[in-house]
Design goal:
The chain is α/β, with parallel strands linked by helices. It has a domain of 201 residues: Rossmann fold (3-Layer(aba) Sandwich). Helix content is 26%, strand content 23%. It is built from eight helices and twelve strands. Strands 1, 2, 3, 4, 7, 8, 9, 10, 11 and 12 form a ten-stranded mixed beta sheet that branches. It has a two-stranded antiparallel ribbon with strand order 5-6. The longest helix is centred in the middle third of the chain and has 21 residues. It is globular, with a radius of gyration of 21 Å.
Length: 291
């Protein structure tokens, strides 16, 4: 049996131990992959788990950015085993310069996991409805046991990767969805098939960033321009947050318009959380109002 250990740490020593735990989510095509792979060079090389179809091609980032990315493309029948292998991998053996892990998307990892569980028929407390023949193009529809199972499995994934990869920055990219849970108002956040994960999943990350598309009237322009906005402040419906040790000023990165190359956002983020600079809030640009 393993030993139970209480680890004591001095508060003054914590900054040197902290690695980023970040979740990014948004609708399809909003620029999540480009944003997640634009982290500062000081975060080292990136190992990238390409769960979404064709994400391994890295078509949304420049060739210069691709140079620092190691792509891991899962290939096999058991997505649970594949992701556990990824979570427990010793990346220093592959490349000691790797400093950041990116999973794109964790929504796909979770959805693949629940489909695998349903099709394996291992949770048979309730009947599975089957369309076609499983293993020959057919699928089993997940039941309540599968949804409960994927909640537990997802928590295990997080424990594994956070415990094993303590010396790496970890970024999970997710799709966005809204859910109506009994007894609660509609809430939005990272997409995950398990109901219990609405609050639990984003709570495991220090920073949660929601990306949205918007249109603004740029000074000197004749018409509105489409932009991507990074949000790190909870609006009461959609989850977002930024934890810092600044107990006085408001969050200056609560809502920032991104450049097409979003690297500058990460520079400001790193400077702010490390207390090197006080980032000035962006002036709000007025939306064009039709007469």
């Amino acid at each position: 049996m393993g030993k139970n250990v209480l680890e004591f740490l001095r508060g003054s020593d914590l900054d040197a131990l902290v690695k980023e735990r970040i979740m990014i989510y948004g609708r399809a095509g909003v620029g999540k992959t480009r944003f997640g792979l634009s982290v500062p060079d000081s975060w080292g090389k990136i190992v990238y788990y390409a769960a979404d179809k064709n994400s391994w091609l890295l078509r949304s980032i420049s060739k210069a950015k691709r140079e620092r990315v190691h792509v891991v493309r899962p290939d096999g029948d058991d997505p649970t085993a594949l992701f556990m292998q990824f979570a427990m991998q010793d990346w220093d053996e592959l490349d000691p310069a790797i400093g950041t892990i990116v999973v794109d998307t964790y929504s796909k990892v979770a959805l693949d996991s629940i489909s695998f569980t349903a099709n394996s028929m291992t949770l048979d407390r309730e009947k599975h409805y089957v369309v076609g023949e499983v293993g020959k193009g057919g699928i089993a529809i997940p039941n309540r046991g599968d949804y409960q199972g994927v909640d537990g499995l997802s928590k295990n994934y997080l424990d594994m990767i956070f415990d094993k990869q303590k010396d790496k920055h970890i970024i999970f990219i997710c799709h966005e969805e809204s859910k109506q849970v009994e007894g609660m108002s509609a809430v939005g956040g990272p997409q995950h098939p398990g109901r219990q994960m609405i609050d639990y999943l984003p709570a495991q990350f220090s920073t949660v960033i929601r990306l949205v598309r918007d249109e603004i009237l740029v000074p000197g322009a004749d018409d509105v321009q489409p932009v991507v906005v990074a949000i790190t402040e909870n609006d009461g419906k959609y989850v977002a947050k930024l934890r810092t040790d600044d107990e006085e000023g408001p969050n200056p990165l609560a809502k920032r318009t991104l450049d097409r190359n979003p690297s500058s956002w990460w520079t400001e983020y790193q400077d702010y959380i490390n207390g090197r600079t006080k980032v000035a809030p962006t002036k709000k640009l007025k939306k064009k109002v039709e007469a």
